[in-house]
Design a protein that fits this description.
Length: 134
């Protein structure tokens, strides 16, 4: 018999809302491997409410927004199937700005996803709007 039950509880959580082909994600860190398993299920569910060929993401990492190495790798693999047009990352509420910025850049660059970092929500939203088809 195989036990597929996780050995650990998820550390970190996220809130995802969708509006006008934009996913708004507030991601509270730090994030362990189990967090990414749950996060990917939530992303798949939220993606049913946007046009899969015409959507953008507003990401707000909050707190100690640092993934485990395995979690970051899981997310890289998950994003290979995404057609997201752009990701705006607002680091205002992030306590680990330098490392979070570096890790996010590595993950998005590995998947050739257009992304930009901001310290103000309005600027991030304005930047993203230019990527959506009318």
């Amino acid at each position: 018999m195989v036990n597929l039950k996780s050995k650990f509880k998820a550390h970190g959580y996220c809130e995802i809302e969708t509006h006008n082909n934009t996913m708004f994600i507030a991601a509270y860190g730090p994030w362990n491997d189990e967090y990414f398993d749950r996060f990917h299920i939530q992303l798949a569910s939220a993606s049913q409410h946007v046009d899969p060929d015409n959507f953008v993401v507003y990401l707000e990492p909050i707190g100690e927004a640092i993934p485990t190495t395995t979690g970051a790798q899981k997310h890289k693999i998950f994003l290979q199937q995404s057609k997201v047009k752009a990701v705006a990352i607002n680091l205002t509420s992030c306590e680990t700005k330098f490392i979070t910025k570096e890790l996010c850049h590595q993950i998005y660059q590995a998947n050739d996803i257009t992304h930009q970092f901001f310290n103000e929500k309005g600027q991030a939203l304005a930047w993203m709007e230019g990527f959506l088809s009318k």
